[in-house]
Structures are given as structure tokens and as C-alpha cells.
């Protein structure tokens, strides 16, 4: 090969590299995702010095020596950013961003940078984490950060690429959906509670609350509140509490029933307790309750018959 042919091949190779670089720049600039080209070689040297000093647990070291994290932040050299980065950061020119990472950092981003240092210091060549940045006018944005060392720069870290995917609106939508679900769940729980303690009007003067299922303190409080509200709203004279559907009555449940009965009497109405079984009778006696003040019947039908046949005669 003569000198002329060698120069021709070299020129072609240079032209190919220039075209390749031009294609890369075109892709870099036109990407809709924020892209950063950075030089981390000084950060690598900073980490090497820390490791050489005998540090074996980088995470513990950086937690205890936050100044070393901020030193690392200051050592990152931003080589270039694309148009999407200017839009994300609300910057008018690249110079505003090339000044350094501190212009967009918030406290959460410092934590993310610490995680980056630990990962890279332990041998990783890429990193990804959800974090936050601040725009130049102070708006907080949620982003997914991805960092990768360029091919051939895995040892020196002289060239790496960072992408920031803005997920702020997605996170806001997720939070709104979460709150909506919580509100729906609360509404459903309220509805279920109301369904589990319905108040049924038998006549203008008589209402019935059939209790079904296990009774705990919270449910008895809810049931008592619903019963008193309906009693006051309808100005009923008799309230029937039916416990036929309650599988078991312990002392706590019986005490709750008695408290509900006492509250009803304070509003001037009579109380009829139906569905009485042996264990309930024993609990009533053991608690020393004021049995004469409570009308008891074995079945709901008997309780309704009592109320309709004159049990509601007087307050």
C-alpha cells in the first residue's frame, strides 16, 4: 500500500467517524427524554482515594461523611445536555445547566447521588433510581434517573450518559387514584357498617335494629350511634334490639348492648331486647344489670307484638 492509498483510507475513516458523531449528536439533541453527557473521572479519583484510605463500607462512610458526597457532586463535569433537558429544567440556555449539578439538586437528589457513589464504587457500571430534581424556577419534579458508563470508559469514567425521565404527572395521577381508592374504600366500609346495623321502622312509634354477626366495641358504638340518630329523627317510642343473629355473646358484647339500651332510655324511649338466649341471660345477671328497665322477649316476633299491642304506650 502506497502513501496515497493510506491517506485516502485514513480520510475515509475520519469522515465515517464524523458522520457517526453527527448522527449521534442528532439523536442526542432530538431525544424527547432529558439526556446528559458527563465526565465522572474526577469522581472516580475521589472514590479511589476514599477506598485507598481503608474504607470498606462505602454506604456507611458516606452516611457518616456527607461532605464527601457533596465533594463528589461538585466533581461531576457536565459536558452537554439536550433540548429536552432545557425544557425539563425550565432553562433558557445550556450554560445555565452546564454550571453544575447543584442547580437542580434537592435533598432527595443528594441521597440518590450517595446511592450512585456506593453502586459505582462497588463495581457497577450502571445505576437507576426514582428521585427528585428542582427546576431552575423552583418546581419540584419526580424523575427516573438512569446512568450508564460509555463503552470504553468503564475504568476511567471519563464519559457517561444520564437520562432523566419525567414521571411527575404519572406519580400525581397514581396518588390521585390512590386517594380515590381510599375514599371509595371508606365509603364502602361506611355503607357496609350501615347495612350491618340497619334500623327498620315498624310503625311511627316502633323501630327495630336487627344485629347480625359478631359484636365488638367498634361495631356496638356504630350501632348505638345509628340507633340513637334514627330514634331521634323519627321520635319513636320503642326501640327493639334483636340479637337473634349474633352467634355468641360475651361479657363485652352484653355490656355494649346494655349501654345502648341505657342511651335509648335517656332519650325517653322504651327498650325491647329480643333473641335472648341462655348465655345472654347469664351475662345479664352476672353484670348486675337493671333488668326491670329492659323488656326482654325470646323472639323478634314476640317483641314486635309486644310493642304494637301497647308497649309503646308511654315514654
TrEMBL record:
<feature type="domain" description="STAS">
    <location>
        <begin position="196"/>
        <end position="307"/>
    </location>
</feature>
<dbReference type="Pfam" id="PF01740">
    <property type="entry name" value="STAS"/>
</dbReference>
<protein>
    <recommendedName>
        <fullName>STAS domain-containing protein</fullName>
    </recommendedName>
</protein>
<dbReference type="InterPro" id="IPR036513">
    <property type="entry name" value="STAS_dom_sf"/>
</dbReference>
<dbReference type="InterPro" id="IPR035965">
    <property type="entry name" value="PAS-like_dom_sf"/>
</dbReference>
<keyword id="KW-0597">Phosphoprotein</keyword>
<dbReference type="InterPro" id="IPR000700">
    <property type="entry name" value="PAS-assoc_C"/>
</dbReference>
<feature type="domain" description="PAC">
    <location>
        <begin position="127"/>
        <end position="179"/>
    </location>
</feature>
<dbReference type="InterPro" id="IPR002645">
    <property type="entry name" value="STAS_dom"/>
</dbReference>
<dbReference type="InterPro" id="IPR051932">
    <property type="entry name" value="Bact_StressResp_Reg"/>
</dbReference>
Amino acid at each position: 500500500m502506497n502513501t496515497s492509498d493510506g491517506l485516502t483510507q485514513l480520510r475515509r475513516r475520519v469522515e465515517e467517524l464524523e458522520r457517526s458523531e453527527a448522527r449521534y449528536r442528532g439523536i442526542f439533541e432530538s431525544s424527547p427524554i432529558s439526556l446528559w453527557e458527563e465526565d465522572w473521572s474526577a469522581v472516580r479519583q475521589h472514590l479511589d482515594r476514599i477506598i485507598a484510605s481503608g474504607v470498606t463500607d462505602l454506604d456507611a462512610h458516606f452516611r457518616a461523611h456527607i461532605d464527601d458526597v457533596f465533594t463528589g457532586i461538585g466533581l461531576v463535569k457536565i459536558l452537554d445536555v439536550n433540548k429536552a433537558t432545557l425544557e425539563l429544567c425550565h432553562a433558557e440556555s445550556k450554560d445555565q445547566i452546564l454550571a453544575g449539578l447543584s442547580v437542580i439538586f434537592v435533598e432527595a437528589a443528594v441521597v440518590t447521588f450517595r446511592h450512585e457513589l456506593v453502586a459505582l464504587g462497588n463495581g457497577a457500571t450502571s445505576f437507576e433510581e426514582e428521585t427528585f430534581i428542582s427546576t431552575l424556577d423552583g418546581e419540584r419534579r419526580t424523575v427516573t434517573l438512569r446512568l450508564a458508563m460509555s463503552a470504553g470508559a468503564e475504568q476511567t469514567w471519563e464519559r457517561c450518559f444520564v437520562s432523566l425521565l419525567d414521571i411527575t404527572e404519572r406519580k400525581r395521577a397514581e396518588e390521585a387514584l390512590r386517594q380515590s381508592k381510599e375514599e371509595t374504600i371508606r365509603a364502602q366500609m361506611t355503607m357496609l357498617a350501615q347495612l350491618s346495623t340497619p334500623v327498620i321502622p315498624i310503625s311511627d312509634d316502633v323501630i327495630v335494629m336487627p344485629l347480625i354477626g359478631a359484636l365488638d366495641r367498634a361495631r356496638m358504638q356504630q350501632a348505638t350511634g345509628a340507633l340513637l340518630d334514627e330514634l331521634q329523627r323519627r321520635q319513636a317510642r320503642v326501640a327493639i334490639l334483636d340479637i337473634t343473629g349474633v352467634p355468641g355473646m360475651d361479657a363485652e358484647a352484653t355490656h355494649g348492648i346494655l349501654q345502648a339500651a341505657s342511651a335509648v332510655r335517656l332519650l325517653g324511649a322504651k327498650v325491647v331486647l329480643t333473641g335472648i338466649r341462655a348465655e345472654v341471660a347469664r351475662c345479664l345477671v352476672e353484670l348486675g344489670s337493671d333488668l326491670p328497665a329492659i323488656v326482654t322477649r325470646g323472639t323478634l316476633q314476640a317483641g314486635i307484638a309486644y310493642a304494637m299491642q301497647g308497649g309503646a304506650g308511654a315514654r
